[in-house]
Amino acid sequence: MSDLLELVLDAHGGLVNWREVTTIDLRLTLRGRLLQVKQQPQGLQGALVKIATQRPRTLISPFPHPGARGLFENRAVAIQTSSGQSIAALDRPRETFAGHERTTPWTQLQLLYFIGYAFWNYFTTPFLLAVNGVSVVEIEPWEENGETWRVLQANFPEDLDTHCAIQNFYFNDKGLLQRHDYFTDVGRGSAAHYVFDHATFDGFIFPTHRRVVPRGDGNIATLSAPSTFMIDLESVIVSTG
Question: Which domains does the chain have, with CATH numbers?
Answer without folding.
Answer: 3-240 (2.50.20.10)
